[in-house]
Amino acid sequence: MILTIIGFWGAYPNKNEATSAYLLEQSGFRLLIDCGSGALSLLQNYIPLHQLDALILSHYHHDHIADVGSLQYSMLVNHQLQKRSKILPIYANDKDDEKFQSLHFHDFTEGRSINENDQLQIGPWQVTFCQTNHPAYCLAMKFKDITSGKTIVYSADTSWCDNLVPFSKNANILIYETSLYDEQLAKITGHSTPSDAALLAGLANVETLVLTHLPHFGDHSELIRIAKEQFDGHVMLAKTGLTFEL
What we know:
Blueprint: E1 2-7, E2 21-26, E3 29-33, H1 39-43, E4 54-56, H2 62-65, H3 68-80, E5 88-92, H4 97-101, E6 109-113, E7 119-122, E8 125-131, E9 139-145, E10 151-154, H5 164-167, E11 173-177, H6 194-204, E12 208-212, H7 220-230, E13 234-237, E14 243-245
Parallel strand pairs: 3-4, 4-5, 5-6, 10-11, 11-12, 12-13
Antiparallel strand pairs: 1-2, 1-14, 2-3, 7-8, 8-9, 9-10
Helix pairs in contact: 6-7
């Protein structure tokens, strides 16, 4: 199981980078987790777009879906170029019917509904979900290697959520959003701080904590410092191209 960070910014991408997008690969299957602004351009540093097997979306905020329309066009063009013949499944919630229906694009992409109670097999992974605390309906995701049992948990966007503790239990990697510094916690809802991330990682006994969905202000080294003070495991800042192999 290989995880590559394609984009990690919150809200909008920094120059030459992207918002939320993560490539998960195993046994020749390639899954893109979220498809934020700038994701398609950077994704092509790792795989040709026609080789993508599926896309899964945590929620419909722009910084997680901005490149979906362009991805749909790429599927059309790659069909025309005879590089691709199969439909790309896009897994997403159907709470917003209009946005869900937009995932169906002729015979090139197909929306497939997910919710917090689902347990799916996507490629070589068992995938389960947990609804997070966010203004939009948003799903955290757990990817479990069916063969080895190793797991990656992606929080998506959330403020503190008790249910994420058992959901993340003993994860090998926890990719957790850290949009805020600790002093901002009471000012902005639906997002988390490094202390939130460290608390969850400790309670869930995860091996590696990756801070992502980073803010465009402040000193990111402060995020790491605070998290490391409160969590004894491995802590890393997300960055473009950072790769984990389990």
